[in-house]
Write a structure and sequence with these properties.
single chain; mainly beta; 6-stranded mixed β-sheet; 4-stranded antiparallel β-sheet; 1 helix
Length: 123
């Protein structure tokens, strides 16, 4: 099991950039597929991006393709989400999560979530 902590959120103007980080504890971080998810006010939590344990496979929601990039550094037990060309509709609390199954990650089939990090994009 890994424990995850999100950071890097903030307030940014439309068109700007942010980089989120997800720091993991535990020696088995490199065994887990990981993903980013977000929940906007009044909406359900949605999938944003996922990455395989090795980092060689990545997946994105259509709404962020070409603007967001997911990556990981297994030596640092950290996953990242580089967010460029941000839009007001990207405003949400962003969460990371992990599972040994990439399928579970892509389905966002998790029983628990962390605190998340708030991203606010002003127009």
């Amino acid at each position: 099991q890994v424990q995850l902590v999100e950071s890097g959120g903030g307030l940014v103007q439309a068109g700007g950039s942010l980089r989120l980080s997800c720091a993991a504890s535990g020696r088995t971080f490199s065994s887990y597929a990981m993903g980013w998810f977000r929940q906007a006010p009044g909406k359900e939590r949605e999938f944003v991006a996922a990455i395989s344990w090795s980092g060689t496979s990545t997946y994105y929601a259509d709404s962020v393709k070409g603007r967001f990039t997911i990556s990981r550094d297994n030596a640092k037990n950290t996953m990242y989400l580089q967010m460029n060309s941000l839009k007001p509709e990207d405003t949400a609390v962003y969460y990371c999560n992990a599972d040994r199954s990439l399928g579970v990650v892509r389905r966002a089939d998790f029983g628990s979530w962390g605190q998340g990090t708030q991203v606010t994009v002003s127009s």
